């Protein structure tokens, strides 16, 4: 028997609303007001999100981001800085007592990431889960994922790269040692790939999100209920965007 | 004195820290980086309770506090943090040796 899952395609939003909506969905699922939920979304304008424990000013060149019109936001999940420019982002929220919710975090990454692996396979890309939280294709990273557990639920969100502009990314990010900036850029170019590079053609957000939607259904045995976010979730997302994710007290807390 | 450092000890992601020391004891510490600690908010309690810890005891105390606060960690260990702190402390001492 398939697992019922709410499916949301919420389009493009700014970083603060995107992070607010992920948290609002988490709260709604925790309250029992919503089914377990899979959401696909994009970022407009482009943004850099940093992990919960990262120091904003030591990871991100805020002036360069302002100059490029790039938002900056702190996530509620750990992990590293991500440049959200040309990618599909997903989030999945499950109650911790759901059969798909492994209690062990590493095992949980491994299970939920199978949805991405299956989605990439539908695009003709052979990929595999690479612990702790990555997916690699041809030995190079194509997807990064981050997970937290709050209010009795798992929230996992992550990105699948459509294309990547490493030089622009590094003009926005700081590196631990400026002397090693060139090497850091070369390392990322060597370690990271994208769907357009692998498939040798442009790929679209809609094409990839459709493949991922099918991949998650196949790998996790999901039966979708396509919906729009509830009005209460949108209002809560706006509130969280304003009071938390766009607030300097949160953004600069580390 | 203020001690700062960063690095990727074996088995860890990038860890950065800023620590206030009184002699060999931690007066305050903030640990940053691209590691995971769930629940995230509990990690702030762990940082607060590292206060008073002797540098030589950081690895054990960090592990003990992670258990106390039921924090699941990925990409950071007490041993890794202790290694970075000790390296920064040794470095600061060698930089302040009298001529």
Outline of this structure?
With 254 residues, chain A is an alpha/beta fold.
Considering the chains and any ligands shown, give keywords for the structure.
heterodimer, A: alpha/beta, eight-stranded mixed beta sheet, 10 helices, B: 99 residues, alpha+beta, two-stranded antiparallel ribbon, 39% helix, globular
Query: What kind of oligomer do you see?
Result: heterodimer
Q: What topology, given as strand order, has the largest sheet of chain B?
A: 1-2-3
What spatial form of chain B do the alpha-carbon principal axes imply?
A: globular
Radius of gyration of chain A, rounded? 17 Å
**Overall pLDDT confidence of chain A:** 96
**Low-confidence parts of chain A lasting 5 or more residues at pLDDT below 50?**
none
N-to-C order of helices and strands of chain A: EHEEHHEEEHEEEEHHHHEHH
State the helicity of chain B in percent bands: 25-40%
Look at the structure and give the mean pLDDT of chain B: 93
Chain pair with largest interface: A-B, 23 and 19 residues
How many DSSP helices of chain B?
3
**Count of strand segments of chain A:** 11
Biggest sheet: strand arrangement of chain A? 7-8-9-10-6-2-1-11
- In terms of structural class, how would the helical and strand content of chain B be classed? alpha+beta
N-to-C CA distance of chain A: 45 Å
Question: Secondary-structure element order of chain B, as H and E?
Answer: EEEEHHEH
**What fraction of residues of chain B sit in β-strands?**
25-35%
């Amino acid at each position: 028997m398939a697992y019922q899952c709410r499916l949301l395609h919420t389009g493009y939003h700014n970083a603060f609303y995107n992070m607010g909506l992920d948290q609002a969905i988490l709260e709604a699922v925790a309250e029992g007001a919503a089914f377990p939920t899979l959401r696909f979304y994009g970022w407009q304008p482009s943004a850099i999100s940093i992990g919960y424990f990262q120091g904003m000013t030591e990871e991100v060149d805020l002036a360069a981001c302002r100059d490029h019109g790039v938002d900056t936001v702190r996530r509620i999940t750990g992990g590293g800085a991500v440049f959200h420019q040309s990618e599909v982002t997903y989030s999945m929220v499950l109650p911790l007592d759901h059969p798909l919710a492994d209690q062990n975090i590493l095992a949980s990454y491994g299970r939920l990431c199978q949805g991405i692996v299956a989605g990439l396979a539908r695009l003709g890309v052979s990929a595999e889960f690479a612990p702790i939280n990555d997916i690699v294709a041809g030995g190079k990273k194509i997807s990064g994922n981050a997970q937290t557990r709050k209010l009795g639920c798992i929230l996992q969100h992550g990105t699948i790269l459509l294309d990547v502009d490493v030089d622009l990314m590094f003009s926005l990010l700081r590196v631990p040692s400026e002397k090693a900036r060139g090497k850091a850029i070369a390392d990322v170019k060597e370690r990271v790939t994208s769907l357009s590079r692998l498939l040798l053609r442009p790929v679209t957000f809609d094409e990839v999100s459709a493949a991922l939607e099918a991949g998650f259904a196949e790998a996790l045995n999901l039966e979708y209920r396509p919906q729009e976010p509830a009005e209460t979730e949108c209002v809560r997302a706006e509130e969280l965007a304003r009071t938390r994710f766009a607030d300097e007290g949160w953004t600069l807390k580390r | 004195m203020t001690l700062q450092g960063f690095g990727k000890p074996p088995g860890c992601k990038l860890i950065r820290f800023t620590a206030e020391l009184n002699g060999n004891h931690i007066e305050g510490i903030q640990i940053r980086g691209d590691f995971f600690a769930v629940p995230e908010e509990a990690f702030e309690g762990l940082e607060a309770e590292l206060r008073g810890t002797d540098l030589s005891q950081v690895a054990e105390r960090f592990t003990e506090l992670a258990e106390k606060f039921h924090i699941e960690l990925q990409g950071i260990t007490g041993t890794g943090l202790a290694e970075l702190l000790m390296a920064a402390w040794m470095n600061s001492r060698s930089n302040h040796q009298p001529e």
